[in-house]
Amino acid sequence: MVGATLGCLLAKQGCRVAIVEPYVPAPFSLNDAYGLRVSAISRASQHALMQAGAWSFITDLRMTPYEAMCVWDATGHGEIHFSAADIGEPDLGAIIENQVIQAGLSQAMDSYDNLAFLAPVSVDACHYAESQIAVELSSGKTVTTALLVGADGAYSKVRTLAGIDVQKNDYNQKGLVAVVRTEKAHQLTAWQRFMPSGPLAFLPLNEGKSSIVWTLPADKADYYLAMSDDAFNVAITAAFDQRLGNVRVVSQRVAFPLMGQQAEHYIAEGIALVGDAAHTIHPLAGQGVNLGIKDAVALAEVFVSAKKVDNSPFSLKALRRYERARRGDNVLTQKAMEGFKLLFGNTFIPLQFARNMGLSAVNKVIPVKNEIMRRAMGL
Known about the structure:
The chain is of the alpha+beta class. It folds into two domains: 2-66 and 90-168 and 259-377, FAD/NAD(P)-binding domain; 171-258, D-Amino Acid Oxidase, Chain A, domain 2 (2-Layer Sandwich). 38% of the residues lie in helices and 29% in strands. The strands form five sheets. Strands 4, 5, 12, 13, 14, 15, 16, 17 and 20 form a nine-stranded mixed beta sheet that branches. Strands 2-6-3 form a three-stranded antiparallel beta sheet. The chain has a three-stranded antiparallel beta sheet with strand order 8-9-10.
């Protein structure tokens, strides 16, 4: 998603772009079941997707704007509510399946004559010389380019080829995802309950359904995966404190390992990293994709500004501006998410009390709460 967004943004600026994808994407149909992986797309990310030419295609498919958010602590009475109406906005963002975002971006890519999509093709090797990087592809072809962007995920081959080290933090947790139907309406609200074992989020979808993301210790996630649907329904209803009544799973359940990582550098000669190739964070705030799209926007902006000055918009000097613009923000967000994880995972009674008091206090300080909303939306 991040690589396609960047590709469209650069193609819009007149760059010749080739997007290399190791798998042929499956075509999307509105008759398809809801995907298990969704993203909470901020207003800033929506604007970026609009600039890339993908947003109108996405809205023509399916998405669910959410108007409010409710967060509470399972160990006490601390609770905080956010409402878009409080800051004069129609919504806080939109819950969109990753497969829908990808389908919208695919349609956008088709609209650019200067953008080629190569699949199934992967990068085998690369060599930098004389301000150009030669990229050897699995198809047997070699492409020469001014910039190779690694948008190839947490296990980035491009990052490895560039010799960029990465700092890793294995959380020993898994994110269990599924689609559920709730007895009570979700009210276009994103719900999140913090428990010592990890947060449980219910993200609103259409047709009265919700996407759940349940962060659990790895062994506990495996335990819940092995349950029958009926047993899981009882467990998830209890874990969510019956906030939306009885919960019934309507999809398969899948769990994926969680880890945080940060590339020590985002750039090398002729190479830049974006999205999960550069950083991954804990999913408790749902900011992973939004951070990646911020990377794409920043790199595209560096190209535009550098092109006005000289004919080397992807020089190492220009790329350093991208790294300075994004790495600090991403590191800060990662540390904040890990801090939240430690804070809400702590069972020390005085800390639990302080945590609940803090949530309740912030809920009453309207200017602070409104500023939190604006920042989360990217306004």
